[in-house]
């Protein structure tokens, strides 16, 4: 921008360049600072251009190879080349419209050759192709293309919903697989725990029975040595009667209003002792 102080003097702002004409023809470029002009000789400032980086957003609608309509939002950063500012001033009347037209042309030539998934993965390649084309064209008009950013890719709303549904279904399927594996592991661990518990329970019962047998054997031997003239059978019968009455006492103390019917009588105690003795004899014979 040029500020005129008086008839023969002008000032060009920083980050700007002024175009000076003489009798309607281009004369020179004026850098930022103070400049003197001679209006009587036909010199005047025709206009000025900023040399700052400018940004232009371009929205392009096109379709992909798999017939999906998408909108691409491109951001083009460009600036006027200071040395060629006269070309930028005289050659193009609307540089933004020219840049937009070339972006449309390149994008609509590249994107229809790509699938939607490939477009998302290779959007930088599309931006690079647009940059190369614009650099070649706009350089002749005094413009430099600094950067091109592919800001966003927006598919049709129905396509976005379908993509989200596919993604959700895949995640649900993966979650089901993990859930099944977790349930399988829990079942295996539960079965292993039950097997280990049964094994330990069996070991405990075997040790308990061994301890009972050892205790009975020791009691029989001690009683036989202490009371002369008694046989092992008599001692065993006495121990069985004692344990029988202890068991009845425990049932009576531990029952909670529960009626338990059990056979009772001396003959029953004799039958129990005979069954235990027969079992121990069979066990002894089988071990031999």
Automatic annotation (TrEMBL):
Lipoprotein in keyword set: yes
Range of residues in the leader sequence: none
Domain Band: 7-167
Entry's transmembrane regions: none
Pfam family membership, one: Band_7
UniProt keyword list: Lipoprotein
InterPro entries listed in its UniProt record: Band7/mec-2_domain, Band_7, Band_7/SPFH_dom_sf
Gene3D superfamilies hit by this protein: Band 7 domain (3.30.479.30)
Designated name of the protein: Band 7 domain-containing protein
The species this protein was found in: Zea mays
Lineage, highest ranks first: Eukaryota, Viridiplantae, Streptophyta, Embryophyta, Tracheophyta
């Amino acid at each position: 921008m040029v500020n005129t102080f008086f008839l023969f003097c002008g000032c060009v702002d920083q980050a700007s360049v002024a175009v000076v004409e003489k009798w309607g023809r281009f004369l020179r470029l004026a850098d930022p600072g103070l400049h003197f002009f001679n209006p009587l000789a036909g010199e005047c400032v025709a206009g000025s251009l900023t040399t700052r980086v400018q940004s232009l957003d371009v929205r392009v609608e096109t379709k992909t190879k798999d017939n999906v309509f998408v909108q691409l939002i491109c951001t083009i950063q460009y600036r006027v080349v200071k040395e060629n500012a006269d070309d930028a001033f005289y050659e193009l009347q609307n540089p933004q419209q020219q840049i937009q037209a070339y972006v449309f042309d390149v994008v609509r030539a590249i994107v229809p050759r790509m699938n939607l998934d490939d477009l998302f993965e290779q959007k930088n390649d599309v931006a690079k192709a647009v940059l190369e084309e614009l650099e070649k064209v706009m350089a002749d008009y005094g413009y430099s293309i600094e950067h091109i950013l592919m800001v966003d890719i927006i598919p049709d709303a129905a396509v976005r919903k379908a993509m989200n549904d596919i993604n959700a279904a895949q995640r649900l399927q993966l979650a089901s697989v993990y859930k099944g594996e977790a349930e399988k592991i829990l079942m295996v661990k539960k079965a292993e725990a039950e097997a280990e518990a049964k094994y330990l329970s069996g070991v405990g019962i075997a040790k308990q029975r061994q301890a009972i047998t050892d205790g009975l054997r020791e009691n029989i031997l001690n009683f036989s040595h202490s009371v002369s003239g008694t046989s092992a059978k008599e001692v065993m019968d006495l121990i069985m009667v004692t344990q029988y009455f202890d068991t009845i006492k425990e049932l009576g103390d531990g029952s909670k209003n529960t009626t338990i019917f059990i056979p009772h009588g001396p003959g029953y105690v004799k039958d129990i002792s005979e069954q235990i003795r027969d079992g121990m004899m069979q066990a002894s014979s089988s071990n031999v």
